Amino acid sequence: MRELTEIIRLTVKEKKDVVLSAVFGAVAGFTSVGVFALSGYMISQAALEVPLYVLTIMIALMKLFGILKAVTRYAERYYSHRATFTILANLRASIFDRLETIAPTIFQRYKSGDLLARIVGDVESLQNFFLRVFYPPLVMMVVFIATILFTLFYSVTTGVLLIVGVLLTGFLIPSLVSLKQRKIESRVRDSRSELSSGTAEFLYGFRELKIHQQLFHQEETLGGASSMYVKEQERESRHSLFSHTINLLVSLLITWLVLVLGVYAVGEGNLDGVLLAMLVMISLTVFDEAIPMATLPYHLEDSRKASKRLGEIQGGELKGRRSEEAPDHAPSFTLEKVGFTFEGGGRSSISDVDLYIPEGSKTAVIGASGSGKSTLFNLLLTFYSPDEGQILMDSRPIDAFKRESLWQKAAVILQENHFFHGSIRDNLLIAGNFGDEELQRVLSKVKLPFRLEDTVTEKGGNLSGGEKQRMAIARAILKGGPLWILDEPTSSIDPMLEAELMGVIRKESENSTLLLISHRLTGLEEMDQIVVMEEGKIVEVGNYQELMDRKGYFYHMKEIEKNVIFQ
């Protein structure tokens, strides 16, 4: 049961509501048994023509028990559900804390549909842990023990039968069902994850599937996943219903035995006949408290699997390791023998990288696709941590600085920039709080003829590649900061406009440290240093003229580019 450690810890944390739920649940159970026991006793007494005041007292007690039952049952529901909602809220916060540390690389570890199924479906499954698994056995035991002690005072036989009943319905049958549940190894959560992942892939790739005439095949696959999910749900429902039926059958059998043996005891003169109806009514009612035990194995296994899947979401490093604020001035960077391999990757993305980026300098990192440029970008932004070597910022290990502080002071342009459904204004304002005049001025700088109220659809679907990149540049200009890190910021922009925008970027980042990652070789003359990468290693470092004079790797790349352009 190690998988349930986290949910148990969060449950125990809400001890006040847990205790109140159990107390009110037990009182509600007592009053429920009391109402039926008193009704059975009153009917028997009424047949003997007892004094009216005796019946009046019993009727008043029944009303009192009825009101108390309603009040305590409401209180039990209130505190149990409040505890459940608080536990789920704390669980979601715990999961979010873990996800936050790996957010930049989260979709390299998990499919979006699978992740959604975990943080929505599996969390919702755990709402049954407290309501159906944790406290019902406590309430059942308290009510049964008190009821058995009460019935033993009047009839030892009935008390023994109730003990047998509670052992069967409360422990033996649920245990056997639980063992069978484990053997069945239900795949509801896994099939739900597959369905969610397949649905997400279908929606994201609808256009490509349509173009390549694969839509029908994908629909069949998705339909199969849906059918599997429904079948798994039906199988679990049948199993849960079977367990409930067996428990109900045993409880009715015990009640029948109480009646048969009670009649025999009355005939033998060992039991007052007035008490027989009371004992039968007690037996009928007390087993209501054992009903939740019928579904406990199902909910226990469901909670165990859900908790296990959530436990597989592993967070990154502890936030406590990062305690320092990033500098307010243009920083320097030093990379010493840095190496990094992606999780599950067969080869190193970068290896044995030594590099110094002076403060306030303008550095370009170039190379072919797959040479390790973007990996270097992600390491400097602490999206990843190096497997080998270390990265220093202002002669301090970069992992000593708070990520949020570093990101706050960095103007960043990614290869793929996200745009939210809303207006142009909304998408620019994520860079900070600016007036319309400033926003419009920046749009003019990046040559975008948009109005601030123009609509942007989800993921910027109505923007071209070049417009998206210019919107990203506008965000970076608005945010500014002592550090600029740009990954292919103009790859979708025509050369003439690209040269103009790079001039704007250089001017805006004049007093900042700038790192430009690109596979293009144009416009590098203004850079303080150029870093050339190939197959994860640095092969050349120098300014434009030095590299051209050296006639090495960079020089040959320029010659190839010229030949391609002029042919």
Automatic annotation (TrEMBL):
<dbReference type="GO" id="GO:0034040">
    <property type="term" value="F:ATPase-coupled lipid transmembrane transporter activity"/>
</dbReference>
<protein>
    <submittedName>
        <fullName>ABC transporter ATP-binding protein</fullName>
    </submittedName>
</protein>
<dbReference type="GO" id="GO:0034775">
    <property type="term" value="P:glutathione transmembrane transport"/>
</dbReference>
<dbReference type="GO" id="GO:0016887">
    <property type="term" value="F:ATP hydrolysis activity"/>
</dbReference>
<keyword id="KW-0067">ATP-binding</keyword>
<dbReference type="InterPro" id="IPR003593">
    <property type="entry name" value="AAA+_ATPase"/>
</dbReference>
<keyword id="KW-0812">Transmembrane</keyword>
<keyword id="KW-0472">Membrane</keyword>
<dbReference type="GO" id="GO:0005524">
    <property type="term" value="F:ATP binding"/>
</dbReference>
<keyword id="KW-0547">Nucleotide-binding</keyword>
<dbReference type="GO" id="GO:0005886">
    <property type="term" value="C:plasma membrane"/>
</dbReference>
<feature type="domain" description="ABC transporter">
    <location>
        <begin position="333"/>
        <end position="560"/>
    </location>
</feature>
<feature type="domain" description="ABC transmembrane type-1">
    <location>
        <begin position="19"/>
        <end position="288"/>
    </location>
</feature>
<dbReference type="InterPro" id="IPR011527">
    <property type="entry name" value="ABC1_TM_dom"/>
</dbReference>
<dbReference type="GO" id="GO:0045454">
    <property type="term" value="P:cell redox homeostasis"/>
</dbReference>
<keyword id="KW-1133">Transmembrane helix</keyword>
<dbReference type="Pfam" id="PF00664">
    <property type="entry name" value="ABC_membrane"/>
</dbReference>
<dbReference type="Pfam" id="PF00005">
    <property type="entry name" value="ABC_tran"/>
</dbReference>
<dbReference type="GO" id="GO:0140359">
    <property type="term" value="F:ABC-type transporter activity"/>
</dbReference>
<dbReference type="InterPro" id="IPR039421">
    <property type="entry name" value="Type_1_exporter"/>
</dbReference>
<dbReference type="InterPro" id="IPR036640">
    <property type="entry name" value="ABC1_TM_sf"/>
</dbReference>
<dbReference type="InterPro" id="IPR014223">
    <property type="entry name" value="ABC_CydC/D"/>
</dbReference>
<dbReference type="InterPro" id="IPR003439">
    <property type="entry name" value="ABC_transporter-like_ATP-bd"/>
</dbReference>
<dbReference type="InterPro" id="IPR017871">
    <property type="entry name" value="ABC_transporter-like_CS"/>
</dbReference>
<dbReference type="InterPro" id="IPR027417">
    <property type="entry name" value="P-loop_NTPase"/>
</dbReference>
